[in-house]
Amino acid sequence: ERLEKERLEKERLEKERLEKERLEKERLEKEIFEKGQYTKKILSSEWWDNTGPLGGIRKGTHRSKQIYFIVSKSDKWDKGALYVPPDGYRWISTQEYPFDGDEVYSYYNQGGWIGYRWNEKEKWLFVFSDSHKTDKAKHAGNYDNSSFAETSISCFAGIVCMK
After folding, report:
1. Cα–Cα distance, 72 to 93 (Å, whole number)
2. Which residues fall within 8 angstroms of residue 82, CB to CB, at 6 or more apart?
3. Which of 62, 77, 89, 103 would disulfide-bridge 143, Cβ 3.0–4.6 Å?
4. Residue 115, class by beta-carbon neighbours within 10 Å (0-12 exposed, 13-18 middle, 19+ buried)?
5. Of 52, 28, 19, 51, which Cα lies nearest the Cα of 162?
6. Which of 86, 138, 94, 140 lies closest to 118, judged by CA?
7. 138-162, pLDDT tens digit by residue?
8. Residue 123: how many other CB atoms lie within 10 Å
9. pLDDT average, residue stretch 24-32
10. What's the first-to-final CA gap in the chain, in angstroms?
11. Among residues 137, 16, 35, which one has the least CA distance to residue 82?
């Protein structure tokens, strides 16, 4: 009986934690959207390409933070859009990106991609939540630990997130 109570309490606390996380994520998205940084909001179900061997998410090799490159269905970046990441992820800014990864390509030739091609589209650039202001992105063909590339509307690969 005691073990059952402990298990139930553990489940309750985990549900509470997940609900707090969800509410905080919604609050942050709403705050960002209301500040006028974005002209529209695109839900992950609309933009995220979760097909392929990695499910459209590659975990970076970074040591200080859990960084993820999340693939878009489209190869065109909507610079004015807030891309809502899949549950459990948060779209990060350029300032949050750590350069402590390994010499592994961000997505080039990985997860079913043939070079930069995936689902008949060229994909080069993973953007950050502030890329529309900084003009900086992560190039799919650069290493996790390499510097930023310049943004472009075309060859959009997806977004950079943290867990």
Report:
1. 18
2. 29, 32, 33, 37, 38, 40, 41, 42
3. 103
4. exposed
5. 28
6. 140
7. 999 999 999 999 998 899 999 999 9
8. 25
9. 71
10. 35
11. 35
Phi, psi of 39 (to 5 degrees): -95, -20
Query: Backbone phi, then psi, for 57, in 5-degree steps?
Result: -135, 120
What was the pLDDT predicted at 106?
92
pTM of the prediction?
Answer: 0.80
Secondary structure, 3-state, the chain: CHHHHHHHHHHHHHHHHHHHHHHHHHHHHHHHHHCCCCCEEECHHHHECCCCCCCCEEECCCCCCCEEEEEECCCECCCCEEECCCCCCEECCHHHCCCCCCCCECCCCCCCCECCEECCEECCEEECCCHHHHCEEEECCCECCCCCEECCCECEEEEEEEC
Instruction: Give the separation between CA 12 and CA 163, rounded to whole angstroms.
Output: 22
Which residue type, as a one-letter code, is found at position 39? T
Distance CA 104, CA 100 (A): 11
Cα–chain-centroid distance for residue 75?
15
